[in-house]
Design brief:
Number of strands: 39
Largest sheet: 9 strands, antiparallel
Structural class: alpha+beta
Shape: globular
Strand content: 25-35%
Low-confidence stretches: 1-43
Mean pLDDT: 92
Distance between the termini: 26 Å
Length: 743
């Protein structure tokens, strides 16, 4: 049995009598056999897998198992600029960037989706709008939105400033400042949240109903319309305090907007949780010792050929008010969002909820950065009736914990309190660029604030000698110190020894309490890197680029447990290298039949990047250089049943230069809502249906190399698909043509 299949069996709960750690090559004998016939496979999964560019172990069911057969079948491959689905499945676009939404428009790069059914075949779809893809957004803005922005004039003005300026520091009325405000405002409008009412029509397609509850919560809500967001928890004590050490926006506990809204979660009581992820693209992330913001000048406005960022700068938005979990009730048209500070400020990804009546609420979320942490919030009070919206008050009081993973498969939750003793993560523990580990910590000069990047264990030990607890690092009374710790959560977590991980993205909690986490990439970066003892490839190699799925089980299945067990249960990569066939796992969704739906997140710059040779100067090229073999991002289904348990089957392939995100099923499982974000992100509009042939050195599942000629479109025209159409991020509804269950 190959490693890929064995690991997925662990993922799906097979009893192996042992813990799987980084090097998962241990052999086990399981009471399962390989699929005997295609009929059994397709009868269970209900679809014929789509063809991805990489040879897979499931080729055995279609007669292409041998190396010779795979070489013949995969020697040519055509990438298509469309959402590719199995035969018998179809999709329709519900809304795309620029469409009318309430008194605003449907935003850019739609991500997490949540569908709340109000009656059969009708309900509210809540949509996150994560970021704008600068190059393509600027190229297509005028055609899609119907007006122009002064991109050229501002680029010219910033040419001698390397494309950057502290626009906040310019005097009011300055012509350049007004032009920057115009651009920044439009970019922030295209981020945040949207609530749209939809229904299924007689043809089975989903359409909008344009109800009075349709609305946008944008990156500038409150700036001009008084639709401020609210906040709860200790962070508020920092927002409202006088005589801040750093920048004060003068708004006390009022918050202007939400942006960088990536993944999310849905509560059993019908509210939606939205994650503010890469907020550091718009505001400064580090803070002062009292939790107050650095000056807006620390994140200048940026405009060049590829970027339009730092858009909060010109409006003087306070950095400490972004990076939170935002809760919104789709059914309440007056609700413009609440940021719950007890869940911590960091680069939030998905929210996995464990809500058991009579027990505290547990909420799991990862910080999606290289070296980011896994966190758990535990409420002080207990869950009541699961459908009662009074449960939202549970976010008001509790505690935030970070996960410390031990190499033996156990772990501990460490509370982020003023009393927690310091025990910094050591640089020698993490994977670093060019072999040099790095860990960012709060700046020991607490008057200056911000962070420092340490690269030696000696510096970490000196830091521990200088400060004994988190309370020594932060200023104010007890509640203000707690607020400052939550505001500075990532760097505080590094200071107390919470494990640095490999870009934690989705967190899904099953009915039996198991937590599944996708770790997207084990490569290090400027933010840090993952723990080298935990995050290793199929054969123990580090770094490993292609990601993992991890299962975490709380001690005694208690949501409030302080200890847990964990295991690496699936590893991304090529089947020839003992992995699953997909790369960089991101979103997870579990359907009613127990099938696991997985979406991938290969970075745009690496999709279909040519690979002439796997060696250079006699040495293997990096895994990042090999990423192009996987083609476009894709969706996969993993069956948990019988003889097919543990196999991963490709269900969908995204259009050019996209990422598919936010999978969400209707209650009857006949529709899968999906976000398709940033089409044409790298090359913009596909001109005159242009494409080119690229070459790839591929491997069969047995490890034999062969040459693949791949036709790759240049840019995108999706979803219009007509010649020279501008690419537009959009939300789609996927269904079977016969109306039966999706899976």
């Amino acid at each position: 049995m190959n490693l890929k299949r064995r690991n997925f069996l662990i993922f799906l709960g097979a009893s192996l009598g042992g813990t799987v750690l980084g090097n998962a090559n241990t052999k086990n004998h399981l009471p399962f056999s390989e699929p005997a016939t295609a009929a059994k496979l397709l009868g269970r999964l209900n679809f014929t897998p789509v063809k991805v560019p990489v040879p897979l172990s499931i080729d055995s069911i279609t007669g292409k198992a041998s190396g010779k057969a795979q070489k013949l079948a995969y020697q040519t491959y055509q990438v298509k600029d469309d959402l590719i689905l199995p035969e018998g499945y179809t999709y329709n676009v519900i809304a795309a960037w620029g469409d009318r939404l309430g008194d605003s428009r449907f935003g850019y790069n739609n991500d997490y989706l949540s569908y709340l059914e109000t009656e059969p075949g009708q309900g509210f779809l809540t949509v996150n709008f994560e970021y704008i893809s600068g190059k393509t957004w600027m190229e297509t803005y005028a055609r899609v939105i119907g007006k122009t922005l002064p991109f050229g004039a501002v680029k010219t003005a910033l040419a001698e400033r390397d494309g950057e300026i502290n626009a906040f520091g310019l005097p009011e009325g300055n012509p350049l400042k007004e032009q920057i405000k115009e651009i920044a405002k439009e970019g922030l409008i295209d981020q945040g949240l949207g609530i749209i009412s939809i229904r299924k029509n007689r043809d089975g397609n989903w359409e909008r109903t344009y109800s009075a509850s349709d609305r946008r919560i944008t990156g500038i809500s409150g700036l001009e319309d008084n639709r401020y967001l609210k906040a709860t928890g200790p962070g508020v004590s920092v927002f409202v305090k006088n005589n801040k050490k750093g920048y004060d926006d003068g708004l006390a506990n009022k918050i202007i907007g939400t942006f960088q809204n990536c993944a999310g979660g849905t509560t059993p009581w019908g509210t939606v949780l939205s994650a503010e992820e890469n907020f550091q693209d718009q505001v400064p992330e580090p803070v002062m010792a009292d939790g107050s913001s650095l000056d807006p000048s620390q994140k200048p406005f940026i405009l060049n050929d590829k970027e339009v960022d730092g858009r909060a700068n010109v409006f003087g938005l306070a950095g400490n008010k972004y990076g939170w979990m935002v809760e919104v009730d789709p059914t309440n048209p007056q609700d413009y969002g609440t940021k719950h500070t007890w869940l911590g400020r960091y680069r939030h990804e998905a929210f996995g909820l464990r809500a058991v009546p009579g027990k505290p609420l547990a909420v799991y979320s990862g910080c999606d950065r290289r070296g980011g942490h896994l966190y758990k919030f535990v409420s002080d009070n207990k869950v009541s009736d699961l459908k009662s919206k009074s449960n939202s008050r549970l976010f008001d009081d509790g505690m935030l914990f970070g996960a410390k993973f031990n190499p033996d498969g156990t772990g501990t939750w460490i509370a982020l309190t003023p009393y927690t003793p310091l025990d910094p993560v050591l640089p020698s523990q993490v994977i670093g660029k060019n072999g040099q580990g790095m860990v960012p910590l709060p700046n020991p000069d607490r008057q200056q604030g911000g962070i420092v990047k340490i690269t030696s264990d000696e510096a970490a030990k000196k830091f521990k000698q200088q400060f004994s607890s988190l309370g020594d690092l932060y200023e104010g009374n007890l509640i203000e110190k707690q607020g400052a710790i939550l505001i500075d959560a990532h760097f505080a977590a590094n200071a107390v020894g919470i494990t640095c991980t490999a870009r934690p993205e989705d967190t899904q909690v099953t009915d039996n309490g198991n937590l599944y986490i996708t770790f997207t990439s084990g490569s290090p970066g400027n933010d840090g890197g993952p723990d080298k003892r935990i995050f290793r490839g199929p054969n123990g190699e580090i770094p490993h680029e292609y990601g993992w799925i991890v299962r975490l089980i709380e001690n005694d299945l208690d949501p409030a447990a302080t200890g847990f067990r964990w295991e690496i249960v699936a590893i991304g990569g090529e089947p020839a290298r003992g992995a699953a066939g997909f790369a960089n796992p991101d979103n997870l969704e579990i359907d009613r039949q127990g099938n696991i739906w997985l979406l991938t997140d290969i970075s745009t710059s690496r999709q279909n990047k040519e690979l002439i040779s796997r060696t250079e100067n006699g040495q293997p090229v990096s895994q990042s250089s090999v990423s192009g073999v996987f083609g476009n991002n894709s969706a996969w289904v993993i069956s948990p049943y019988g003889i097919n348990a543990g196999q991963a089957y490709p269900f969908a392939i995204g259009p050019m230069e996209t990422e598919m995100t936010g999978p969400f099923f209707t209650e009857d499982q006949t529709t899968l809502f999906l976000s398709v974000q940033h089409p044409g992100e790298r090359n913009g509009i596909r001109r005159n249906m242009n494409s080119e042939i690229r070459q790839f050195e591929m491997e069969t599942t047995d490890g034999e190399t062969f040459r693949q000629n791949r036709e790759v479109p240049i840019g995108s025209n999706w979803p219009g698909k007509q010649v020279n159409d501008p690419p537009r991020p959009a939300v789609v509804a996927i269904r079977r043509a016969d109306g039966r269950s999706i899976s």
